[in-house]
Design brief:
- There is one protein chain.
- This protein is mostly beta strands.
- The chain is 6% helix and 38% strand.
- The protein has 4 helices and 42 strands.
- It is globular, with a radius of gyration of 25 Å.
- It starts with 20 loop residues before the first helix and ends with a strand.
- The relative contact order is 0.11.
């Protein structure tokens, strides 16, 4: 996760998952028919910035916080829960587990055991199980633990951030296994910001990752001992005698021109993601992983994974399968509309889901700075794509309810696009190599619950976005969520039999006439009348609140991105802050075309704009200022930024 300032809790107030306003409101209402979000009342004097959740044996909810506290919530299912301070003085506890009458948590610099010996619901002992070095960098987050089937604990350590992810002290960027006695074994490295991780019933480890340097988009990766997850900074410590791999940072090219899937064929230690979460489309800051162990008491998705997204304040659903020994699967939207950024999830004894949230420093669509809510299944089954399985020539879909056979057999009801991301040192990645695939045939099962799609244009190593906008169940219901995103690494039998389609690749440059990056010829030798520059500061803000220029003036405008996130500048052509907000909303609707368009819509509301500018980079654009004096606006339209990243442009 990247740091943003305290003001970020207001970020994206009505955006991303709530854009356009009418549409997103309706999906939240529709989801609530099946899964209801209930508030857990937090006393006003408690700043419950949730870092971890764990349920005790006597059904009390433990909550660790970023402020270094652990709270016990008695009767967390009721409307009048009781909060009691169990422990304090800790250092940003971003995880929590409970076992053998004790809480375990990761502080920034250690794994700690807390125990209440006299039964008064207050910790009497704070025991260090294992400690690791700290650099003092703000980005040195530590997560966990989670217990494996042998009773050992798994933790993950975030990279520091200094002009990119850095492993400034030993084991930063690693997943570690620690025994209750304090023996540590490093498992894997290549982690950048591993806020979420989980262990499945077979004992396999998975971690989620957020977009950043070396990470084109959010993703979930299966890690085994000796694996490399993609970010080379942690390889700095591969010469340690305990390291399970010998790969070095210099072994990884900064800009190979390859995708992560392709590069993994060159470097056996590198693990391609099992699941991609397309950035700004499905999520922006993946967080916790929670397996549905309810046996059907939380709806029709038993055995699947729920994955939180801190930035979008929502939960996604993942169906995972193993093909030729390799994990892969499909990601689906599930429930959005939580009050703050979803960071942690845990099951209650009644098979409801407790959801812990925080947004201070990390932007989220939920407007609250923190929150604790409960997600409850209403007992009604939504009409959804339940599973999506890979075939060697297509996919098999299973639905939660019987489908209309006539509609399901009509191939015009299916749309599929394939795309992927670059694997490089640069922060994030545009969508690249986008191509349409074609559903050639659809065969419906006798019971109406499954359909086999024969697909032309499947590609290994690519995300396959499937959209079924008009399909209905026999009951007349339309799909609650109409899109699925399958990450295809393998096919059954090992040979892809999907007919390939000759298409022009979409790794293209789109002409944007309002992005002028060289001095217009007609300006002559005198060049610009005025030269303006604007910078960025953490918290999704420009470094100035207003800029004054003259009307009908030739402007040279430079964006210096001093932040650790991607930004742009868009100058509006009409007056009023509402115009800037409208342009930001339109940018969010660009979908897969957003990266190619620098997240700037073709609109008469736009006077001029830059491209997307990465951290520690800059771009200069040229335009002529409006001829009408007044208050115009400069706005960043990179998804999620426009509500707070605004500067007034006064034209005189």
């Amino acid at each position: 996760m990247q740091r943003i300032t305290k003001l970020s809790f207001v970020i994206l107030c009505f955006c991303i998952g709530q854009i356009a306003f009418g549409q997103s409101k309706s999906i939240v209402e529709k989801e609530a028919e099946f899964y209801k979000i209930e508030d857990i009342q937090i006393p006003k004097d408690i700043k419950l910035e949730v870092g971890g959740l764990a349920l005790t044996d006597d059904d009390k909810l433990g909550v660790s916080t970023r402020r270094g506290e652990v709270w016990l919530v008695e009767n967390p299912y009721s409307k009048t829960p009781n909060f009691k301070l169990y422990a304090h003085g800790l250092h940003e506890a971003l995880g929590l587990a409970y076992k053998d009458n004790a809480f375990y948590l990761s502080q920034r610099g250690e794994l700690t055991r807390l125990e209440d010996k006299d039964g008064d619901d207050e910790a009497d002992t704070y025991k260090t199980i294992f400690s690791w070095p700290l650099s003092g960098n703000y980005h040195d987050y530590s997560y966990g633990p989670k217990f494996d089937k042998n009773g050992d604990m798994i933790v993950t350590l975030n990279l520091s951030w200094t002009n990119g992810g850095q492993s400034t002290v030993r084991w930063r960027g690693w997943m570690l296994k620690i025994t209750p006695e304090g023996k540590m074994t490093p498992i894997a490295t290549g982690l950048r910001s591993p806020a979420g991780f989980g262990i499945n019933a077979e004992g396999d480890y998975f971690f989620t990752e957020n977009q950043g340097d070396w990470v084109g988009s959010g993703r979930m990766t299966h890690l085994e001992v000796g694996d490399f997850g993609g970010h080379p900074a942690g390889l700095k410590w591969s010469d340690d005698p305990q390291s399970p791999l010998k790969l070095k940072p210099g072994d990884i090219e900064d800009n190979s021109g390859l995708t992560l899937y392709e590069y993994a064929e060159k470097v056996p230690e590198l693990k391609a993601p099992a699941i991609w979460f397309p950035h700004t489309i499905l999520g922006i800051s993946t967080s916790d992983v929670l397996y549905d162990t309810s046996g059907g008491k939380f709806g029709p998705f038993s055995g699947q994974q729920f994955v939180g997204d801190q930035g979008h304040s929502k939960i996604m659903r993942v169906y995972m399968e193993k093909v030729n020994g390799v994990y892969q699967g499909a990601a689906f939207p599930f429930v959005e509309g939580f009050s703050s950024g979803v960071l942690r999830m845990v099951w209650g004894s009644d098979n409801s889901m407790f959801v812990g949230m925080t947004s201070r420093g990390w932007a989220s669509t939920g407007t609250d700075e923190y929150g604790l809510q409960r997600l409850v299944w209403t007992g009604k089954t939504p009409f959804e794509i339940k599973t999506m399985k890979a075939l060697d020539d297509g996919f098999e879909l299973e639905f939660t309810k019987p489908i209309n056979k006539t509609q399901a057999e009509d191939i015009s009801n299916y749309k599929m696009v394939t795309f992927t991301y670059k694997y490089h040192k640069t922060y994030g990645s545009p969508i690249i190599d986008q191509q349409n695939a074609m559903v050639h045939k659809a065969e419906v099962s006798d019971d109406g619950l499954k359909v086999k799609l024969v697909v032309h244009g499947m590609r290994l190593g690519f995300i396959h976005q499937l959209e079924i906008p008009g399909l209905k169940a026999t009951s007349g219901e339309t799909l609650l969520h109409k899109k699925a995103y399958y990450t295809l690494n393998e096919v059954p039998g090992g040979e892809l039999r999907s007919m390939q389609m000759e298409m022009k690749k979409s790794d293209k440059k789109v002409e944007q006439p309002k992005r002028v990056t060289s001095i217009p010829h007609e300006w002559g030798e005198d060049g610009a009348d005025e030269k303006i520059s604007i910078g960025t500061v953490p918290g999704l803000k420009y470094d100035v609140e207003e800029i004054t220029i003259s009307r009908n003036s030739k402007i040279e405008f430079t964006l210096n991105n001093n932040d650790d996130m991607i930004h742009n500048v868009v100058i509006t052509s009409k007056q009023g802050k509402d115009i800037a907000l409208k342009v930001g909303q339109e940018a969010l609707g660009l979908g897969l075309d957003g990266p190619d368009l620098n997240y700037v819509p073709f609109s008469d509301l736009v006077l001029a704009h830059s491209g997307t500018v990465g951290p520690e980079d800059s771009e200069t654009i040229y335009f002529t200022s409006p001829d009408e004096p007044g208050e115009y606006w400069i706005v960043c339209t990179f998804p999620g930024h426009y509500l707070t990243m605004l500067t007034k442009l006064i034209v005189k």
